[in-house]
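Standup notes
- DV: blocked on the single-chain target, sequence here:
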Amino acid sequence: MKKNLIVVLGSLIVAFGFNFFLVPYGILSSGISGIAILIGLVTPFNIGFMNLLLNLPLLVLGYFKLGKTITVNTLICVASLSGFLYLLPVVPVTDNILLSAIFGGLIGGIGVGLILKYSGTSGGLDIIAIILSRTSNVSVGLLLTLMNGVIVLVSGAFFDWNIALYTLLSIYLTGKMIDTLHTDHIKLTMQIVTTKGESIRKELLDSVYRGITITEGFGGYTQETKHILMMVVTRYETMQIKKIVRKYDENAFINIFETIEVDGQFAKN
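- DV (later): unblocked, structure below
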């Protein structure tokens, strides 16, 4: 329930940034919502309705690639964001377009960052970015910024290049704010010392999208044979892994430290 409320709050923050800062000046946002804004500006269709319609096929992709939980949160976000975009009036807070681009981007990034942090996405390209981020060393925010280059080009083609540059600034600031709040791209190494290595190994391989290296150790005090499981994971995955370990071994020793660089296969096939 708490996560769902935060997802709805994040959606409200995103919609506020759009309708009070970006949309009044024709500045596009990142991802599918940016395309929805574009369609809403050049056609009679409501931006909220278009955002919902364009996200439906990507929700199906998210269900198969990211799982049921994150897809349900995404559906809640897409529905609430579309509703807020429909309900909130389009009223400029400032008559300065530069300030609107800056604060619209930052506020949108805060909203999306909160949503991502609590196991959801705001839909659209976020789904694709998370899937790519899980199998690479590239952050979600950077992936979104790169993919949104096409939004800038479309903005320049439909409006003018001044608007396109403001759009680029807004998207960049959104990406930076997302990376400030959403730290799943930070890699951590987990070392798990346990006497229940086989049981833990089986469930981790079934539940976590990462490979495991297992070595055999020997307790210096207990003189007991132990298994040492090593995994490189994202910060988001550590809580799930700890729950699995404690399920089988309350006395397991878990050592977690930050990984500077990963060179080689990071994700499990």
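- Follow-up: Residues 2-181 form one domain.
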